[in-house]
Design goal:
There is one protein chain. The protein contains 22 helices and 51 strands. By secondary structure, it is of the alpha/beta class. The chain has five domains: 216 residues, Spore Coat Polysaccharide Biosynthesis Protein SpsA, Chain A; 128 residues, Hexapeptide repeat proteins (UDP N-Acetylglucosamine Acyltransferase, domain 1), CATH 2.160.10; 141 residues, Alpha-D-Glucose-1,6-Bisphosphate, subunit A, domain 3 (Alpha-D-Glucose-1,6-Bisphosphate, Chain A, domain 3, 3-Layer(aba) Sandwich); 175 residues, no CATH class; 87 residues, Alpha-D-phosphohexomutase, C-terminal domain (TATA-Binding Protein). It has an eight-stranded mixed β-sheet with strand order 14-15-17-20-23-26-29-32, with helices on one face. A seven-stranded mixed β-sheet has the order 5-4-1-6-11-8-12, with helices on both faces. A hairpin with a 2-residue loop joins β2 and β3. α7 packs across α10. The longest helix is centred in the last third of the chain and has 18 residues. The protein starts with a strand and ends with a helix.
């Protein structure tokens, strides 16, 4: 059998390690990662190997040559331009004239390839994907198989709600040469995104083999460190090219351990390295070749490449240092600091946690470096989360952050395009809007300042004025603390697709964006009618209210600091006669005041609008609060009264009775994922979405009441009775994938939907298990026609989640 090692990756998430080194050549215990892959193939008698190269190919060729030194035959196939994973293998098709295995040169594994090959041959598969189980599957392709191993579904880099299993694609494939008939020549083509979905669609024999053993994708700096720590702990069966002279003390040839040096294993010391007396090498210290470590220096959980000189009395804690660096005396490298090749740090320098220096930087003596130099990369958490980009004001969210995010956003746009900016009236949101504008202008993007408004106002402006995108900023409450939320919209006014979020995130961490020439900066203009445009469109859509002479009498409660004048215009034009209470409409503390006012004034009902025109609460004449589930059903019922043949996207967790609400209406419902983009994409015929824009929703409800001349109570009486039960189950982040797999396994004989999370149908109703995007927890929701059935169902599935969560079980 032949093999293909894919070795063309740039490894951008490993920068600055990969600025001058291709990712497959990044050292693991002083040998290139790809060398371990060659040894694995040779161990399984696979010695004819194609190597696909693209980024810095000469580095790989110069090191491995023809492979004879390792007992294999290497044949190189170079891409002048990236062709994608399948396209690069197609480029080597003349060599691959028999069953072959594809494997990445930048991952470490000890899988038994013979077992995977036998599985492939027994099933007469055209393509077999080697799978493994991981704790956090978000960065991989999740794969589902049936009992025979045939692949039934897979998702590339899913959200948590799409993680139906913790079984992922390792990038190791066993393929038949006939697959080349499906891969176009000299075109960008991908295995996971194109070829495998095509095979699945054509019902071709596509199988998944779940391998046992160790596998690590060296995808980021943290994983790079941990993989080498695992090697020292013997968690992976690979050859370590050093002598273990004492338990956990690995030393290469031509290195002599000096007296009065403290070694706390496991440690690894490369050839020709000199360690002066008085130095301390703490656990998981990995020292490359020809390093000099002078007296009094303390190194702990740190990786040094080759030819570094570390001055006396330095402290290196959980750092990563590439080759040929000069580090002066009494310098401190704090946790997760990274130094590229060829840097010079003067004496008494302090590199703070997470600081990264790109190659060939010079740091003056006694400097305290708080931010990365030239290009920065942070790994604290992902940039985009469920709601958008958010963080604590003036801590995580600063003007510097806004400018950098704007430049990253600008990097995916064409120069001279126009982006709208809008914010709430909160002073911090307004300030950050101007900082964002500066970042866009510096990238050559024109800015149209839309002033203040809700997200719906901003979205309407994108569509009305045909902008190329927009950004909305507002404050949200998370666990009692204000956070700034930044929402990025595309040219249709929709939240960005996940693929664009990833591009922006990569550009942000790598600072891989272009600053335009000073004479080509973007223009800045103001537009003061965004709210007016929205209101006019809203009034035009609600003709029934304008025609009827008896306006509703309602109490409206809201926060006057959050679009106060806009809410008052809405009340005047839509509600007519009204009572306005200047209170914080988003606070539960004021619910009782709203209820009391409704009852004392004999109002038809009460309305509480939260921040951004969202967070709606309705109170009936007798003071009864409408539940969230009733409110969702009421919005859909009101939308059905429009008598228009349109589609409305509703979340998969919406009550099961909502379809019955539109049975006699031309309105059709489409169940979608929970995220806003999915809801909006399925509702393109709606000017505004009633589930996402509560100002529009209130207007629809009032229009439905007035059209049918009934009270709010009468409208609610048209909704069939249903009951909802909800529960939150905490879990560890790394347990999410395995818990989803266990639940899916337990429900394999039941009717399920996998639109978002796992939805299980029963005779009594249904239960949906939704892993949260931002928190280490699951949300479990049950809908049924009776309280007893809903509570029983939710208890059953919550118990299953707890049983499948090993930390909770312990």
């Amino acid at each position: 059998m032949k093999a293909v090692i894919m070795a063309g990756g740039k490894g951008t998430r490993l920068r600055p390690l990969t600025m001058q080194t291709p990712k497959p050549m990044v050292p693991l215990l002083n040998r290139p990662c790809m060398e371990y892959i060659i040894e694995l193939l040779k161990k399984h008698n696979i010695t004819d190997i194609a190597v696909t190269v693209q980024y810095l190919p000469e580095v790989i060729r110069d090191y491995f040559g023809d492979g004879s030194a390792l007992g294999v035959n290497l044949h190189y196939f170079e891409e002048t331009e990236p062709l994608g994973t399948a396209g690069s293998v197609r480029n080597a098709s003349t060599f691959l004239d028999e069953t072959f295995i594809v494997i990445s040169g930048d991952a470490l594994t000890d899988f038994n390839l013979d077992d995977a090959i036998a599985f492939h041959q027994e099933r007469e598969s055209i393509a077999t994907i080697v799978l493994t189980e991981v704790d956090t599957p978000l960065e991989y392709g999740v794969v589902m198989t049936d009992q025979e191993g045939r692949i039934t579904r897979f998702l590339e880099k899913p959200n948590w709600s799409e993680v139906f299993s913790d079984t992922v694609n390792t990038g190791i494939y066993i393929l038949e040469p006939t697959i080349f008939e499906l891969i176009p020549a000299k075109q960008v083509y991908d295995f996971s995104m194109q070829l495998f979905p095509l095979l699945l669609e054509n019902h071709a024999p596509l199988f998944g083999y779940i391998a046992e053993g160790y596998w690590s994708d060296i995808g980021n700096l943290q994983q790079y460190r941990e993989t080498q720590f695992d090697m020292l702990d013997r968690k992976v069966q690979v050859h370590i090219a050093a002598d273990e002279i004492a338990p956990g003390i690995f030393v290469e040839n031509h290195t002599t351990l000096t007296d009065r040096v403290t070694y706390i294993g496991p440690v690894y010391i490369g050839a020709n390295t000199h360690i002066a007396p008085g130095a301390i090498l703490g656990e998981y210290s990995i020292i490359g070749r020809s390093n000099q470590i002078l007296q009094g220096t303390h190194i702990d959980r740190t990786i040094l490449w080759d030819h570094n000189q570390i001055g006396p009395d330095c402290e290196l804690q959980s750092a990563l240092v590439c080759d040929r660096n000069l580090i002066g005396q009494r310098t401190q490298l704090q946790e997760n600091a990274v130094i590229g090749s060829g840097c010079t740090l003067g004496p008494e320098v302090t590199l703070k946690s997470n600081v990264k220096l790109w190659p060939n930087k010079v740091i003056l003596p006694s400097s305290k470096v708080h931010t990365s130099i030239i290009w920065g990369e942070q790994t604290m958490h992902q940039l985009f989360r469920g709601k958008g980009v958010y963080g604590i004001p003036n801590s995580e969210m600063t003007p510097e952050f806004a400018g950098k995010l704007a430049a990253a956003f600008g990097s995916i746009l064409s120069p001279t395009t126009t982006v709208g900016l809008c914010s709430s009236t909160h002073p911090f949101a307004s300030m950050m809007k101007f900082a964002f504008a500066a970042g866009l202008q510096a990238a050559g993007i024109h800015v149209l300042d839309l002033g203040t408004g809700t997200t719906a106002v901003c979205r309407n402006s994108v569509q009305t004025m045909q902008l190329n995108g927009a950004v909305h900023m507002r404050m949200i409450d998370i666990q009692g603390q204000d956070h700034l939320l930044i929402e990025l919209l595309d040219s249709q006014g929709l939240p960005l697709a996940k693929s664009l979020e990833r591009k922006i995130e990569n550009a942000f961490w790598q600072e891989d964006f272009i600053r335009g020439p000073v004479n080509q900066i973007g223009e800045y203009r103001q537009y003061n009618y965004a709210e007016t445009d929205y209101m006019q469109k809203l009034v035009k859509a609600l003709s029934a209210i304008a025609m009827l002479p008896h306006p509703v009498f309602a109490v409206l409660q809201y926060d006057p600091q959050d679009h106060g004048a806009f809410i008052e215009r809405f009340a005047s034009q839509i509600l007519g006669h009204r009572i306005i209470l200047h209170r914080n409409g988003s606070s539960k503390a004021h619910d009782k005041e709203l209820i009391d006012t409704v009852m004392h004034t004999d109002a038809d009902f009460g309305i509480q609008l939260g921040r951004n025109g969202q967070g709606l609460l309705l109170v009936l004449r007798d003071g009864t609060r409408i539940t969230d589930e009733q409110l969702l059903a009421l919005k859909i019922l009101a939308a059905s009264k429009l008598n228009k043949s349109v589609r409305l996207g509703v979340p998969v967790s919406a009550p099961q009775i909502v379809e019955s609400l539109v049975a006699d209406s031309p309105l059709s419902l489409v169940r979608t994922k929970e995220n806003n983009r999915a809801l909006l994409e399925s509702s393109r015929d709606f000017l505004f979405h009633p589930l996402l824009d509560d100002i529009y929703a209130v207007s629809l409800i009032i229009q439905a009441m007035m059209t049918e001349s009934i009270t709010l109570e009468g409208l609610i009486s048209q909704i069939p009775y249903f009951y909802t039960a909800k529960e939150v189950i905490p879990c560890a982040w790394h347990e999410k994938g395995s818990m989803m797999r266990q639940i899916l396994k337990a429900t394999k004989h039941q009717a399920t939907e996998l639109i978002d999370g796992i939805k299980v149908m029963t005779e009594e109703g249904w239960v949906i298990i939704l892993p949260d995007h931002d928190e280490p927890l699951f949300r479990v929701i049950a809908h049924a026609s009776s309280e007893t059935n809903a509570e029983r169902m939710i208890s059953n599935y919550c118990n299953q989640l707890v049983r499948s969560n090993s930390p909770l079980r312990k």
